[in-house]
């Protein structure tokens, strides 16, 4: 019962942390979760969690890095491979040496090998913490790609260095040649294991599908188990499990996507399931860090042999040393790269101070550092206690907190004006509309005769989404004078065309009169909007009152109206034809007037009248046949959703949209896709 209450408390804390972040958005979610973890640790729950580092890595780090590998921008990762390797390998080993000697010099009670172990634990930046930064801080796209690529790779180099430092401390034996050879074997072996196991999985799934086994639950379970199995197999083969799951994640992201309904179902379920899993695991990582702090603090606070002020000074000094070393390493490596490009007659410039500072302060430590520190053994080979184990763990935890605090409060000040983003509402709205219009254009180019009806309906759905976006934007700013004048001008176009058709004898006078009355009502609604709203509200209330108080009388009136409509079907068909021609005329005139200066108004009106035209044509055409091409429409929707995802990704990779907007667009698309495919999944 105690463990159930403990897990329940952790899950409730995850919910509370995100709720609190809505009220204090300037504090990062990881910091809030660490605080809640401390609160859980001091609660009167009898269950005492003993965190196993190996279990921590396989349960949390493996699936989180697998997911990060799937989401990583592969093109950017390959394009920045040299800067990433310089940080993920070079800086890690430089940190082990420099910070190791610095710690031993500052705290002589920590042996040199143990100081190297602490430095190795502090060397890797944390992919989970870096991901949390991307949701809050508008870091330049190049720096964010560099940080993500570094965090994916430096875990392996840091853990390998940590293992050798611990071995040297425990056994008293160390060989640089053996350590170097082992590192490359472990790293390359981990990548190969991840790639081979992913390829075998793809072959297995292809064979299973060939047997007709398309059960979504079965395939989803395989997806969930993938990072755990790959990590465990890699570790059993004594290679890097972390690099194995990263390589597997990248392999999965490059898997060819096929547009068949079964994979659509799997994609919908996968998106929803993994979003929940990652959401919970991200929260648990920092909550568990918080739960460990009280017990670690208690030991150091009372039994370390150093004063509390000294311990705090150690943490601040080591944090400062890590930032300074990272700053110097980034600046020197970028300067060398710039000079090399200048020798090759490439236009470049020396690194500026602000990007270097951003990269230096973004080196957040997190879960891997904690797991490494907790993996320090209690005893040496000779049976004596590991020297200053509690102090080392406390320093590691303190550095994690310091880097998170710096990233939360200092980094946003430097990153504030670094990147032009689409935070402006009008610019963001224009971007969203441009994406949807690109999807419409692509769909039109891919339309086949047998899918034209279904494609037209999907295109109309996209036009409705554009219209809704424009209406939301317009409602927030109200109808300005330019839009009001243009709408009145459109009514006059329709009025003139109606009169022209009447004079030519194409419609009878009574139909012309009825349509002119409809135009007069629209004109009155624009000129006297408040009065029209009051009148509309009164009519709605009156009909509702009639329906409640006199249902039979209202039923007779409704039936009488329906009979009248059926008798006058030819007249209504003529009016629909008139409206169709008017809408075509309006769209043509609006397109002739469209310029960059009036695109916000004219573009919105073109979309609005295109939707009206499609509705009129559907009313004019045969009814009751919609169910016949529902399946074709769904297939076209699948293609449209993938086109939309591709456009979003391309705009993000080319710098057209920010990381936050790209993530928001993908989440919105996932929600729409889940909603539209809900019936299909049952």
TrEMBL record:
<dbReference type="InterPro" id="IPR004705">
    <property type="entry name" value="Cation/H_exchanger_CPA1_bac"/>
</dbReference>
<comment type="function">
    <text>Na(+)/H(+) antiporter that extrudes sodium in exchange for external protons.</text>
</comment>
<keyword id="KW-0812">Transmembrane</keyword>
<dbReference type="GO" id="GO:0005886">
    <property type="term" value="C:plasma membrane"/>
</dbReference>
<feature type="transmembrane region" description="Helical">
    <location>
        <begin position="266"/>
        <end position="291"/>
    </location>
</feature>
<dbReference type="InterPro" id="IPR006153">
    <property type="entry name" value="Cation/H_exchanger_TM"/>
</dbReference>
<protein>
    <submittedName>
        <fullName>Na+/H+ antiporter, putative</fullName>
    </submittedName>
</protein>
<keyword id="KW-1003">Cell membrane</keyword>
<feature type="transmembrane region" description="Helical">
    <location>
        <begin position="355"/>
        <end position="379"/>
    </location>
</feature>
<dbReference type="GO" id="GO:0051453">
    <property type="term" value="P:regulation of intracellular pH"/>
</dbReference>
<feature type="transmembrane region" description="Helical">
    <location>
        <begin position="391"/>
        <end position="414"/>
    </location>
</feature>
<feature type="domain" description="Cation/H+ exchanger transmembrane">
    <location>
        <begin position="9"/>
        <end position="415"/>
    </location>
</feature>
<dbReference type="GO" id="GO:0015385">
    <property type="term" value="F:sodium:proton antiporter activity"/>
</dbReference>
<feature type="transmembrane region" description="Helical">
    <location>
        <begin position="156"/>
        <end position="175"/>
    </location>
</feature>
<dbReference type="GO" id="GO:0015386">
    <property type="term" value="F:potassium:proton antiporter activity"/>
</dbReference>
<keyword id="KW-0406">Ion transport</keyword>
<feature type="transmembrane region" description="Helical">
    <location>
        <begin position="311"/>
        <end position="334"/>
    </location>
</feature>
<keyword id="KW-0739">Sodium transport</keyword>
<feature type="transmembrane region" description="Helical">
    <location>
        <begin position="181"/>
        <end position="200"/>
    </location>
</feature>
<keyword id="KW-1133">Transmembrane helix</keyword>
<feature type="transmembrane region" description="Helical">
    <location>
        <begin position="237"/>
        <end position="254"/>
    </location>
</feature>
<keyword id="KW-0915">Sodium</keyword>
<comment type="similarity">
    <text>Belongs to the monovalent cation:proton antiporter 1 (CPA1) transporter (TC 2.A.36) family.</text>
</comment>
<feature type="transmembrane region" description="Helical">
    <location>
        <begin position="32"/>
        <end position="49"/>
    </location>
</feature>
<dbReference type="Pfam" id="PF00999">
    <property type="entry name" value="Na_H_Exchanger"/>
</dbReference>
<dbReference type="GO" id="GO:0098719">
    <property type="term" value="P:sodium ion import across plasma membrane"/>
</dbReference>
<keyword id="KW-0050">Antiport</keyword>
<feature type="transmembrane region" description="Helical">
    <location>
        <begin position="84"/>
        <end position="107"/>
    </location>
</feature>
<keyword id="KW-0472">Membrane</keyword>
<dbReference type="InterPro" id="IPR018422">
    <property type="entry name" value="Cation/H_exchanger_CPA1"/>
</dbReference>
<keyword id="KW-0813">Transport</keyword>
């Amino acid at each position: 019962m105690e463990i159930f209450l403990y897990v329940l408390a952790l899950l409730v804390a995850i919910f509370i942390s995100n709720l609190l972040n809505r009220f204090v958005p300037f504090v990062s979610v990881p910091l809030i979760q660490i605080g809640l973890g401390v609160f859980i640790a001091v609660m009167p729950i009898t269950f005492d969690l003993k965190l196993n580092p190996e279990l921590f890595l396989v349960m949390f780090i493996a699936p989180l890095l697998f997911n990060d590998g799937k989401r990583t921008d592969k093109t950017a990762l390959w394009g920045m491979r040299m800067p990433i390797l310089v940080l993920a390998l070079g800086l890690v080993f430089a940190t082990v040496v420099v910070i190791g000697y610095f710690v031993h010099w500052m705290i002589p009670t920590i042996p040199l090998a143990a100081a190297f172990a602490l430095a190795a634990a502090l060397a890797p930046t944390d992919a989970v913490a870096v991901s949390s930064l991307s949701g809050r801080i508008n870091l330049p796209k190049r720096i964010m790609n560099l940080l993500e690529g570094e965090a994916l790779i430096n875990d392996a180099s840091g853990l390998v260095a940590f293992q050798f430092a611990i071995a040297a401390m425990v056994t008293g034996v160390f060989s640089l040649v053996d350590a170097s050879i082992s590192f490359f074997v472990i790293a390359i072996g981990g990548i190969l294991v991840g790639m081979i196991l992913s390829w075998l999985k793809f072959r297995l799934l292809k064979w299973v599908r060939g047997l007709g086994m398309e059960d979504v639950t079965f395939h989803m379970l395989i997806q969930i188990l993938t990072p755990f199995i790959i990590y465990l197999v890699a570790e059993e083969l004594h290679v890097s499990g972390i690099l194995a799951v990263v390589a597997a994640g990248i392999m999965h992201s490059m898997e060819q996507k096929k547009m068949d309904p079964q994979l659509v179902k799997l994609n919908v379920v996968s998106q929803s399931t993994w979003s929940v899993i990652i959401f919970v695991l991200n929260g648990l990582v920092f909550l568990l860090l918080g739960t460990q702090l009280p017990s670690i603090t208690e030991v150091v606070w009372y039994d370390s042999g150093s004063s509390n002020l000294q311990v705090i000074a150690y943490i601040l000094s080591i944090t400062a040393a890590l930032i300074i070393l990272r700053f110097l390493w980034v600046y020197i490596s970028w300067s060398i790269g710039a000079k090399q490009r200048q020798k090759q007659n490439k236009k470049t410039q020396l690194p500026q101070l602000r990007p270097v500072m951003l990269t230096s302060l973004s080196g957040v430590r997190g879960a891997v550092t904690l797991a490494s520190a907790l993996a320090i053994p209690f005893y040496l080979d000779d049976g004596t206690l590991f020297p200053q184990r509690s102090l080392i763990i406390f320093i590691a935890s303190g550095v994690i907190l310091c880097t998170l605090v710096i990233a939360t409060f200092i980094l946003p000040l430097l990153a504030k004006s670094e990147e032009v983003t689409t935070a402006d509402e009008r610019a963001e709205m224009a971007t969203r509309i441009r994406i949807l219009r690109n999807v419409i254009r692509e769909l039109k180019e891919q339309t086949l005769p047998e899918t034209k009806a279904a494609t037209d309906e999907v295109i109309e759905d996209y036009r409705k989404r554009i219209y809704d976006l424009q209406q939301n934007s317009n409602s927030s700013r109200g109808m300005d004078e330019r839009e009001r004048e243009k709408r009145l001008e459109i009514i006059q176009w329709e009025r003139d065309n109606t009169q022209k058709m009447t004079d030519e004898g194409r419609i009878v006078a009574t139909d012309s009169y009825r349509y002119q009355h409809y135009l007069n009502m629209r004109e009155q609604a624009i000129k006297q909007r408040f009065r029209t709203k009051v009148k509309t509200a009164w009519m709605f209330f009156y009909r509702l009152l009639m329906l409640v108080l006199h249902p039979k009388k209202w039923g007779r009136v409704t039936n009488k109206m329906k009979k009248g409509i059926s008798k006058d079907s030819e007249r209504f068909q003529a009016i629909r034809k008139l409206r169709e021609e008017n809408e075509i005329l309006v769209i043509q005139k609006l397109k002739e007037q469209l310029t960059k200066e009036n695109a916000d108004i004219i573009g919105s009106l073109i979309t609005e009248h295109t939707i009206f035209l499609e509705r009129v044509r559907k009313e004019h055409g045969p009814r009751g046949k919609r169910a016949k091409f529902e399946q074709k429409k769904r297939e076209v929707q699948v293609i449209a959703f993938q086109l939309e995802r591709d456009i979003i990704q391309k705009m993000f990779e080319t710098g057209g949209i920010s990381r936050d907007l790209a993530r928001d667009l993908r989440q919105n698309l996932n929600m729409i896709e889940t909603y539209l495919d809900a019936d299909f999944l049952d």
